[in-house]
Amino acid sequence: MSSTILGAAAPGRSRAKQKELGHRIRVKMAAIAAFLFLAAIAIYGADYYILPLDQRPYSAKHELLRPSGTIGLKLGIFGTVLFFIIFLYALRKVIPWLGRMGTARHWMDFHVIAGMSAPIVIAFHASFKFQGIAGVAFWIMLAVALSGIVGRYLYAQIPRSLNAAEMSLGELHDNERMLAEFLLVQSVFTEEQLRKALKAPSPERASRVGALAAIAQMLVFDLAMPFRMAKLRRLGGGSAGLRSLGGLFSSGNREVEDIVGIVRQKAALTKRVLFLDQTQRVFHLWHVIHRPFSYAFALLAILHIVVVMGLGFGGMGMH
Length: 319
Ligand code: HEM
Description:
Bound molecules: protoporphyrin IX containing FE
Mean pLDDT: 86
Number of helices: 14
Number of domains: 2
Structural class: mainly alpha
Largest sheet: none
């Protein structure tokens, strides 16, 4: 129900919805595959990776798992493939035909999966020996990936329509109004109960908050949201209390859940609108870290590959 309210604003809704569903399935499958792959390497290699460096050559797995070993080298190549996927996100902004494929939001999902997996794949490739150029590249990559988590949070706060162009403030207000109208006609909760569940700072107060304080307030708002919704479920009565762990999970009551879904959407939208200005400013600043560091790391990674290839894969002391 909740998604239909917002979706009604977009033309070609059901086709867009189907595409979105297909994308969600592909993302889930990619995430599960990445997890299983990394878990398999971790389980298989654990007894090798925990060995002190001087004892590794005596391990039966040394020829396989050392960076230039049969598996180790393939992990390095796979890590490089992941980097290509990661950088496709940036490339699609400058290569028109790439930009026409899919939406930015969809590409971002794969950027995140590849970006989270790559440092782990590379750590396995390096067999946790981070020295020289490759070591510096690894730490920069890790910093970029960790900064990505912050960026991903900010990215989610800047509302985008289904075709991934940022929504205008007018569209956001329209969506907010639509949700508010729906809440007016429901009869499960009183106006006062909904007002409390939707409580947010006034626009005047929000505009006076500094950029970092605004991000902190949004985080607190997001963390408090499940508890606000739990309270609403409990007020909605029925079996909400017991079945849903005090209201933290679905109550099973369709009507209550529909309204909780709308309230959650409306509250999230209000928060984004209130702090949009600050979020955009911090996100802009965040790019100043994520982007140049990722290019610096790419340069070092290329240098590492050139050096290693120049020496013949097994030729480096650290390998
Ligand atoms: C090795 C890891 C990673 C590298 C090399 C990398 C590199 C990049 C590059 C080159 C861009 C494009 C910057 C631009 O065009 O302005 C970008 C954007 C971005 N990345 Fe990453 N990234 C990595 C990991 C991650 C991770 C793990 C996340 C999230 C958990 C993430 C989230 C983002 C976000 C939110 C953007 C901004 C999107 C936008 O403004 O349109 N990145 N990254």
